[in-house]
Amino acid sequence: MERDKALKIVAEQLTEHRYVHTLGVMETAISLAELYGGDVKKAETAAIFHDYAKFRPKKEMKKIIEEQDMPQKLLEHNSELWHAPVGAYLVKKEVGIKDKEVLKAIKYHTSGRPDMTLLEKIIYVADYIEPGRQFPGVEEVRELAKISLDQALIKSLQNTITFLLKKNQAIYPDTIKTYNSLVLKGGKSS
């Protein structure tokens, strides 16, 4: 799908602020794909559609999670996680994108998963570090992304887990499993 057509489709689903975020994720994902030898076109497509379901009503997302046999544990955790797997489902159903790699990158961009593919890592990190993001720790992850995608991913997971711990919120099991998977494979936490 051509970039302009994809952006037009996704613009109808997002607020102006989230559309600007999406453009930042797209440019960052393209840069990371170029840097790490990823598929630039797939990175672009996954980035454009990563927040496709972000503003769907919670009731609709809950119904899709229940009816499409998605992990029910999602419903026990913060609804911020829901738009990723629901988005992958809706992008396939409504937009007609069938590329499994692109759909998985959308599906796991909020939680991560053990043994993430290069494309999944690119979208996760791009979403975290795009230029519009401003929060404690983001600059360190941006710098790490220039030298090691895995190190950037580990640090972003550390920051997310620490943030959730400080807020006394439950941590989705796949996020912990993603962190452990990377560290056990030789990644270093700082």
Description of the molecule:
- By secondary structure, the protein is mainly alpha-helical.
- 64% of the residues lie in helices and 0% in strands.
- It is built from 10 helices and no strands.
- The protein has helices at 3-11, 16-36, 40-49, 58-67, 83-95, 100-107, 118-129, 138-145, 149-166, 173-184.
- α2 packs antiparallel against α3 (40-49) and α2 crosses α7 (118-129).
- The protein is globular.
- The protein starts with a helix and ends in a 6-residue tail after the last helix.
- The model has no long low-confidence stretch (mean pLDDT 96).
Question: Care to give the gist of this entry?
Answer:
With 190 residues, the chain is mainly alpha-helical. The chain has helices at residues 3-11, 16-36, 40-49, 58-67, 83-95, 100-107, 118-129, 138-145, 149-166, 173-184.
